[in-house]
Every structure is written in C-alpha cells, then in structure tokens.
Amino acid sequence: MPTAKGSFNKVTRAGRFIQQQAGPERFASFYPAPLPPDPLVRYDTELQDLDERANRALGRLEGISLFLPEPSLFLYTYVRKEAVLSSQIEGTQSSLLDLLLFEAEEAPGVPLSDVREVSNYVAAIYHGLERLKEGFPPSLRLIKEIHAILVKDTRGSEKEPGEFRRSQNWIGGSRPGNALYVPPPPHEVLPAMGALEKFLHNDPIPTPPLRKAGLAHAQFESIHPFLDGNGRLGRLLITFVLCAEGVLSQPLLYLSLFFKQHREEYYAALQRIRTEGDWEGWLKFYLTGVEEVSRQASQTAGKLIAMFEDHRGAIQKLGKATGSALRVHDLLKRRVILSLPVACKELELSFPAVNKAMMNLQKLGLVREFTGKHRNRLFSYDPYLKILAEGTERPG
Hints:
It is a single chain. The chain folds into 2 domains: 4-300, Fido-like domain (Fic-like fold, Orthogonal Bundle), CATH 1.10.3290; 315-388, Orthogonal Bundle (Arc Repressor Mutant, subunit A). The chain has a 3-stranded antiparallel beta sheet with strand order 1-2-3. The protein is mainly alpha-helical. Helix 1 (45-66) runs parallel beside helix 11 (279-315), helix 6 runs antiparallel to helix 7 and helix 10 (263-276) packs antiparallel against helix 11 (279-315). The longest helix is centred in the C-terminal third of the chain and has 37 residues, at 279-315. Strand 2 (15-22) and strand 3 form a beta hairpin. The chain contains 15 helices and 6 strands. It is 56% helix and 7% strand.
C-alpha cells in the first residue's frame, strides 16, 4: 500500500495528493474530489450484477422486517451486535456478553473504557434513528451530534467531541511522514464535508440509495473529519443513509461483521480509491458485503422466529406452570441477560413465581445461570445468546 510519503502530487479521479511540510519532513495529504465520481462509476457486467443482487437481498431483508412479530426485539439485539463488532474493528476488547452485563449493571470482563465505547455506540444509533424519524436529514449537524455521543466519557472524549478536527491526523505510522494515509489538512475538512452533505441531498445529481451509502462511507473515511471515532461513525453512516432514503424501515443491515472478517481487503479497497481512483473496485467489495450480510440477517431472523416458536411449544407443555414461564420467556427475548429481581419488577410477579418459572426454563435447557453464586444470580437465554454472539467473541 503506498505510504503518505510516496504519493507526492499524484492526481486520480478520486482526488489529489498534495505535498505538505511538517518541520523538516515532507508528506502527502489527500484532497478528495467531490462526489459523485467524475467520470461516473463504470457499471460493467460484474458490477451491475452485484448491484442487482445486493438490492434484491436488501429488499428481502426489508420484507422480512415488515413481518417480524416484534421488530423492536430484533432491533435491540442487532444494534448491540453491530456496536460490539464496529468497536472491535477499532481495537476494543468488549464482547456482546460484556455489553449485556454492563447494561445489567454487572461488571464486564474487560476494562470499563472499552465497554463504555460500545455502549455509546448503541446510544449514538438510537439518537440518529430518532432524529431521522423526526424528519431531520443526514447532515453535518447530525453527524456532529452523533460523534459527540460516540466519544462521550471515553478515551476520545478529549479530542474535540462533536467538532471537526483543527489539527492534522493520519492512519498508520507514528507521524504523517511515515503514515499509510494522511487525510486532508484541517482547513480542507469543512469544504470536503460540505460537498459530502450536498451529495447526500442529491446535489448535483440523484444517486440510487445503496450506491449513495457506499460512496458516502468511503468519502467520509477519506476525509476523516474527526480526531477520533471516524471508523465507527463512517460505518453508521451507511445505515443512516439507507433508513433516511426509505430503503430500510428497520436498521437491520450492519456491515461491521463483513468488514471485520475482510479487514485487510476493506482497508486496501479504500486506499485504492485514493491512489488509483478505483471507485468500481470499492463498490464491488461493498456490494458483495451488502448481499452477504443481508442474506445472513434474513436467515438469522428466520432462525430466531422458528426457535422462539419451538421454545414456546416446549413451555406450553409445563401444565399449570406455563403462564408465568411464558411471561419470563417473553422478557428474556427482550433482555437476554436477566436477574430474578429485575424480572419480578418488570413482570409484576412475586419472587417465588419468577424463581420457579426460571427453574422450569432451566430444566428445559433454555436458560443458564452463569455466575455460580447463591445470591445475585444472573440467567442468560443461552440458545438465543449463542446465535446473537456469532462473530462477536472477544478478540485475541
């Protein structure tokens, strides 16, 4: 991959590298050209086929989401899985279980700073979605709001939260002179982001939503407008664009697992945009991910619906104990990690009733007590958690 030092004054259709000076050292920073690409993306047979397949897979996912028995339930779990995966790409050690324990006010198995970053990501998703529902368009103001939430009380909280950077940043290496990539200098950030905002609003020309989301993500990563949190916010931008454009009614498409599994290819595809103007190569990679993730999300949704029905059928054979067990089971679908006192409060049932219901679910193999304590016990809806946690295991 070309370094910042080896690309002086190179020009591609995606932008240009311009020589900069930091003391005695020279380096090249990238000035991205406004979207859409000029000339426009060339849709050969392969790219056209990928585009059609990705749109069909996304359409099937949207169709399934419209018929989900409890859309909010799936949104709850998908949001948290995406938060974990996107944060892991940036180096956090938090797993899905760590996040769920943190939300249940229990100590996670990793530093609090790591799991707090993931928790902030969840809050940022919900904030962005709420703003979109209010009719607020994807904009620089919304991007800044989301960024401030992302880095609140984390290791990035001292790096101008909610404000575009006023100093040079870089990717890879210890300084701009040996970096793998140097984004535009600070005075170019606002003009570049302003042009990106216009593109999101179909200026100068309309762009189909799925392509728009992919192009905008790559452009955001090239601008790298903040001192921290750019990767997480850039991945969120894909989902927000698709929801704002009405392609998805529920934000069930998250690409972080695909990007995590193909991390080197992901970064290489972004870099080839800058060094070679290869927007077509990036879109092929991105659309492959959209198709794959949409198909997996559809399969997971179907698997969970069938599993819930199977478990409900098993619970209905408990006789007199069925009623309370079903209520606890319904609560576990919304809160995969659950304590008995919380269940009592949420369901307005007595402690003996909830305890008996949980023991019945444990005998059926549906829940597991995983603290090993006699007091302050925590139960997990184990079959559900295993499906959700696929791919989110703690790095290492």
